[in-house]
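Researcher: Sequence recovery benchmark, item below. Answer with residues only.
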């Protein structure tokens, strides 16, 4: 089944500008078009039918006073390049739903959000959302503590009809990727040192996940072409490089 979907995705994806500024890819899912816009770093925006989904919106990547209002906002963890309440407040409307971690909420006062821990899930505005682990194993601060401790941050799996999109958040090639209970069609995996993964680690994670389309993101000064080289013989994985430094 995945091979059939891979052909559909490969034939349906094309790039368009968002307001002349941000590159986007559009795919046809079983339930309608999914437009994925690459804002920068770990920041993304999805449009699915009439829904607008912002992922880790931050002002350093875009002027959110000018961005479309959100139906759904997902925040992977509490670091300032992922959690920015100024950006979120700009895109809030009456029925906007926000999903974030418990540690995010500990930093905020008088703000209402859905708190998801690793393993939690639910359906919001018709989109099935699952929170998965996102953490460091190897990369640590000078005091020995990981940049992203286990159990604190989230990755997310979003289901758009039969198309499943994995948003890695800040993570390494964790063993949980080998035991996902759902086929992943599109994956966004972070690749920058010392906070997330090397290209070799992303390649290892990609082989475990086996997504048809892989977007390296949050890659800073790391050369994404190194990942392209590592996976060049993997015919079932297409690496798509977009401007997500």
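Model:
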């Amino acid at each position: 089944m995945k091979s059939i979907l891979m052909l559909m995705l490969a034939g349906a994806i094309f790039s368009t500008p968002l307001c002349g500024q941000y590159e986007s890819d559009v795919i046809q899912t079983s339930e309608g078009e999914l437009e994925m816009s690459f804002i920068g770093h770990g920041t993304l925006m999805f449009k699915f039918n009439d829904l607008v989904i912002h992922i880790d919106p931050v002002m350093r990547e875009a002027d959110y006073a000018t961005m479309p209002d959100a139906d759904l906002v997902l925040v992977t963890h509490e670091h300032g390049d992922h959690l920015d309440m100024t950006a979120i407040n700009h895109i809030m409307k009456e029925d906007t739903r926000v999903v974030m971690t418990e540690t995010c909420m500990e930093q905020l006062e008088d703000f209402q959000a859905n708190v998801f821990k690793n393993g939690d899930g639910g359906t919001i505005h018709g989109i099935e959302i699952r929170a998965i682990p996102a953490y460091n194993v190897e990369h640590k601060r000078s005091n020995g503590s990981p940049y992203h401790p286990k159990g604190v941050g989230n990755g997310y799996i979003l289901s758009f009809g039969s198309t499943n999109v994995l948003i890695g958040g800040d993570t390494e090639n964790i063993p949980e990727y080998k035991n996902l209970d759902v086929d992943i069609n599109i994956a966004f995996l972070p690749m920058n040192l010392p906070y997330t993964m090397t290209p070799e680690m992303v390649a290892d994670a990609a082989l475990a996940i086996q997504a048809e389309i892989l977007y390296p993101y949050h890659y800073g000064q790391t050369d994404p072409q190194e990942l392209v080289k590592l996976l060049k013989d993997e015919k079932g994985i297409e690496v798509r490089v977009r401007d997500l430094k």
